[in-house]
Amino acid sequence: MTKTTALELLAKKREAIYALNMAAALIDWDAATTGVPEKSLEVRGNAAGWLGGESFSRFIASDTIEAIETLEGCLSELDEKEQAMVRELGTKYRKERAVPPEEMQAFESLTAQAQNIWEKARETNDFSLIEPYYEKVFDFSRRLCDWYGYEDHPYDALLDDYEKGATVKMADEFFSLLREKITPLVKMINSSEKKPREITGKFPIERQRDLTKWLCDFTRYDINRGKIGEVEHPFCTTITRNDVRITTKYHEDSLQSSLFSIIHEAGHAIYEQNIAEELDAYYLGDGASMGMHESQSRMLENMIGRSQAFAEILLPKLNGLFDGFADWDNEMLYRAINIARPSLIRIEADELTYCLHIIVRYELEKALISGEIKVKDLPGLWTEKYEELLGVRPPDYAKGVLQDVHWSAGLVGYFPSYAIGNVYAAQYMHAMKKVVDVDASIRGEDLTPVVGWLKENVHRYGELYLPDDLVRRATGEGFNPSYYVDYLEKKFTDLYK
Amino acid sequence: MTKTTALELLAKKREAIYALNMAAALIDWDAATTGVPEKSLEVRGNAAGWLGGESFSRFIASDTIEAIETLEGCLSELDEKEQAMVRELGTKYRKERAVPPEEMQAFESLTAQAQNIWEKARETNDFSLIEPYYEKVFDFSRRLCDWYGYEDHPYDALLDDYEKGATVKMADEFFSLLREKITPLVKMINSSEKKPREITGKFPIERQRDLTKWLCDFTRYDINRGKIGEVEHPFCTTITRNDVRITTKYHEDSLQSSLFSIIHEAGHAIYEQNIAEELDAYYLGDGASMGMHESQSRMLENMIGRSQAFAEILLPKLNGLFDGFADWDNEMLYRAINIARPSLIRIEADELTYCLHIIVRYELEKALISGEIKVKDLPGLWTEKYEELLGVRPPDYAKGVLQDVHWSAGLVGYFPSYAIGNVYAAQYMHAMKKVVDVDASIRGEDLTPVVGWLKENVHRYGELYLPDDLVRRATGEGFNPSYYVDYLEKKFTDLYK
């Protein structure tokens, strides 16, 4: 195969894969925003399965690897984008091929069943129901480590699968630093006499929709290149580079739920909207990694959306739209949107304690993969760790070890990337502040300078660079959790001491 | 190829084609109901084009015809469904293959351009802009007749393409009967002193949505196996047999527009919802023909929705939802929803005059195909025929010869199927009334007996039988326009004499 043939073959495949993936994204969007009639689920699932299978089998066909190997043989003749495409496709292809197909099939039907069992186990508070499934999931995951390969710790292979380049060494350092600095803060807050006022009341949904428009405008999420849907569990999805959609769920008695989910999803969306269009042709038109994506959403949600400057512009807006804010001031609002309190449920956790929930899961997964603990030990260890790190004790498994769908879905190694995003976000914020007056931009109700910096230094590159390389180019150094830990320590000491 | 291999091959292909078509239907639904960002149009169009092309190329591959020919060689060993599948696929395949691919490609790019030119020609009232495109469309259509083949009149080939089994002979008889009976009625109405009161006022859209729910319930459109969207131009689309969606457009100052579009689309939807699920596996899960589909929507819209019995149940409903009906009675409402008046625009025409609009187009198309007239004669002949049949004269081309998109889209032979549906509808209604008390069913606000008869005699068969066979099995005779003409004559004589 010649270089030209190889490039043409990959381009042709990409067209097919792109179309099939677009269809899959629209099928998911349709289901989430308008629902699927229950009787239609099976046939629709078969069709969606066919489309996904077709996309996969086009990728996994043997001419793909022939093309990749051809291009690997003449890397120096390729431009930067072509080289990155070869790197990404080569890695992905070899991982897919490393798993024996019959094992993968068995695993997929296992996890399809396990998710139903997991729901039953939660409902009946019976860990023993799900235990044999978790055993098999972790057993498969351990073998996955061997199939994928690793240098130091087998769990590296799983971490890397969700966050390219992530390792146990890096996560251990990060999490022990967090533990050391955050757990005393949490104890301090638990005994603090500062009790911020809570935002309560009724918030008419039509008014919340008006707030959403203002938030989209503020974050520079381009609604003319996307749209907003209402769903049960908010997400962001890319149909095309110029049709990036976000979603939210409005609750009449909770203002913050939709407010911060919109800012969060807008953070994902501006990333997708700003990826250079030309990268699509090289399979590089996605975010650099899951952690990198979370860095954008969490920076917007927490570092910007929960800042003092944002509280200042938010208050007059809330006074214009809702009753009950007449006797509030900026400082009260800032404190109200930053209430930190140790809790049992990860997805409801505040900015400060969120990563502690991740540490629990990380330590358990790592020990399960290395064989130090067994699945049957999980409930006991979960309770121990929550008591140790957060000072709370789950009353049942639904609020404890069975709260997350991940393990029954076969996702092992996924949790840390939620936390890694915070680290990147703090690094970017630190670097950006050297050249951009972020607070002035927030107070001016126009994030253009902030988003401009992110687009220039992060967004536009898509998957062209590996995460560590991308953050290094933008900030001058690789993954470094100290900025994030310092940020948390300063913010929450000021708030609660 | 053995019989078993052939059946398996077609089943496997169907799975792919079904999934690709489902994706295409969802892409269209998404565009119509939520819109597409303008900047996303091109990429999205490319992806949709790829999916459509993939579906087509799987169908047109040479192993399809090998399988069809294998099965044609052992028809007597096949069951009824398999035989029908072979009949339908064989016809479709040979038609597709009869057109030289380069001619088809040229035609497709011609019509893609022609639709933009048509819009310009309408705007500037300049027929000469579109004339060369129409020349080419009709030139291609004439050659299409030869490629497809025909027995008597070349136009038969085009009619049959949209309405299996339709011929010039049948259409001529139908339309001349209509002409003879309806044109005097139209003259009578024009000079009638009966001036029904019109429904005017403001109809809050939220209340119209409540009316929609009642209409869906009344027509037995199963909303749990579908959903309702709001769009610019209403349509019905099938995602799966258990997810059949209808759409409408609400106008605050027009009650009838959405009311009757909902009943019309519900007529299409109950057809799709009631097709036997097992037929999907044989490529037979669609309506028997376009005319057969229209027979269901027009029966519900006109013969049921514009009946005296329906006016009786509608009035209290309108009084409950809207202002301004307190001084109405059943008879007034019945007359208001049946106002007939010759007009210029087909899609706005009433039940009585609708088919006259079709006659104009039918006669012009037939004469163009046989070479009796030229494209340049169209504007003059259009005006002549509207004056003769409807007594009205278009002030410009937008309200005259350029009102329909069909010819610029390459659709020649399509119009008559709109009218043919009315004929089937009247035949079914006549047969059904022998065993079902239709008016009592309407007055009881529950169409179950009516829909039950339609399901039993029409819907469930999908494409298993050819249209003429289907109507014959249900009513004891083939296509017979006399029921429809009698129905119109009686209804509108009673209303206006």
Question: How would you describe what is shown here?
Answer:
2 copies of one chain form a homodimer. Chain A is mainly alpha-helical. Chain A is about 65% helix and about 5% strand. Chain A has a 3-stranded mixed β-sheet with strand order 1-3-2. In chain A, a hairpin with a 2-residue loop joins strand 2 and strand 3. In chain A, helix 3 packs across helix 4, helix 9 packs parallel to helix 10 and helix 16 packs across helix 20. Chains A and B meet through helix 1 and helix 2 of A and helix 1 and helix 2 of B.
Radius of gyration of chain A: 23 Å
Chain oligomer state: homodimer
Q: Largest interface: which pair?
A: A-B, 36 and 36 residues
Query: What value does the average pLDDT of chain A take?
Result: 96
Q: Which shape of chain A, going by the Cα principal axes?
A: globular
Instruction: Show unreliable segments of chain A.
Output: none
Largest sheet of chain A: 3 strands, mixed
